[in-house]
Sequence to fold (561 residues):
Amino acid sequence: MKQNSSLFRKKTVDQILRDANSAENGGLAKILGVRDLVSLGIAAIVGAGIFSTIGVASYNGGPAVSLLFIFTAIACVFTALSYAQFASTVPVSGSAYTYAYVAFGELFAWIIGWSLILEYAVSNMVVAISWSEYFTGMLKGFGIVLPGWLTVNHETASDAFAKLQSAGAAEMSTYERFAAAAYEQSPVIGDFHIMLNLPAGLVTLLITALVYIGIRESRTASNIMVVLKIGVVLLVIFAGAFYVKPENWSPFAPNGIKGVMGGVASVFFAFIGFDSISTTAEECKNPQRDMPKAMIYCLVICTILYVLITLVLTGMVNYSELKVSDPLAFVFEKNGLDFMAGVISVSSVIAITSALLVYQLGQPRIWMTMSRDGLLWKKFSKIHPKYQTPSFATIVTGFVVGIPALFFKMDFFVDLTSVGTFFAFILVCGGVLYLDHTGISAQSKFRVPYLNGKYLVGALLILAIAGLSIYGQSVVDEWKAMSAMEIVEHKLLTIIFWITWCILAVMSYKYNFSILPVAGILTNLYLMTELGSSNWLIFVIWLAIGLVIYFSYGYRKSKLA
Fold:
């Protein structure tokens, strides 16, 4: 019994604040205000999502993807309110990791911290590679062409070359032909072709150096880049509005609800950056007051921008043409506005750079907090005496992101990043229910507005089941056509979703839960059901590796042990 209870040992709010302020850890510079926090949030959210993945989402779902942005934003608002309550209660740099330590205990805290490595480090690899594509495209616009073998990873190039040999150039996209040519022209040692994505590695190195030097310099750079890219996004919206053809919005949802929901990973990837605000809590002048405001402000601003951008994109060209990596530049080229396309290409480099910056800020601060608790090597919590940043953790983050970005293909990890993030979001919403139930919420400077869900959660469950039986005949038929094995393989998360709703309905009746955190849990869990099962398999493997590290080091070295 002692073994089990020690796995779920919890830290009190007072303990966490005492550890954060202890002399041995050094202090972080407290310089961030609401405007800076909003800027960092926008920097993370308006990045690779709006300049890249929005095209694929629109291709799959048509103009109706604008509604998916609203639905995903609502899920994020429920979550952001929960984050804001935790940030006002526990104003330290651990994000969801710290919040889980208070609400659910050490094992869950470790799992969340390990999941956040996926959210920050792996997503930054994707963002760095996306940055490289835009950067090399921008250089071409100025007549500078880098050798192909310095801009493409080995796997992509060798796959493209193999396709060239088997299918011929006629069956290949422009990018695949470029990658195959880069493979042929690359230097060879023995039988091995030397290929690397040099721009992705270099930009990670430069951003890591900026983050290492200090939060003040990072804040200034982020603020400048955010002003530039918001200006460009507004330019796209207002200039593009004159070229919108309303007939392109019909049909509004050409592939039905399935097509719209197929863009969940891409759309959600665009939003995950808002929780990076919480990782800078210790560098905030008044976190209890400013963090809740900043989270809500940046979500509202970014949702409006995303919805307007989606409507403009799908209005300027037919949705079926938007399966491109640079949709904003593409729609203006398609309408003969090459100058605008050039401006967008340059600004997209700036936009994605700012997203890189925020993610590189977030990851070291989570490692620093885990190290303070004894779950990671002590060196991760070392604060630089001059720059007042987590120096060792920042350097390690640079290597963890930069080396894979140089050599590996990372498209797949967009979905995988979303799995880890959904998991963290659900536990944060559940944590607020715990704070309310135990009375810890009395210490919160900001609280999620309380709306009694005693009868509402159950009533909504009954309405949902009734609606499904009346209007969801196609869904029912799909389930009937599947074998038990296929249901387990493809629909297990959907089953978990309905079981969770039933459990929450009973618990809401018993404990008078607030409806908003419950809505956060259910909307995030529903969005999770739309992700592929293969991503879940790899996420489980990732968790297993994390648990091996925890039981071999963190469990024994924990300060609570």
Q: What stands out?
A: The chain has a mean pLDDT of 83. Residues 154-195 form one domain. The longest strand covers residues 188-189.
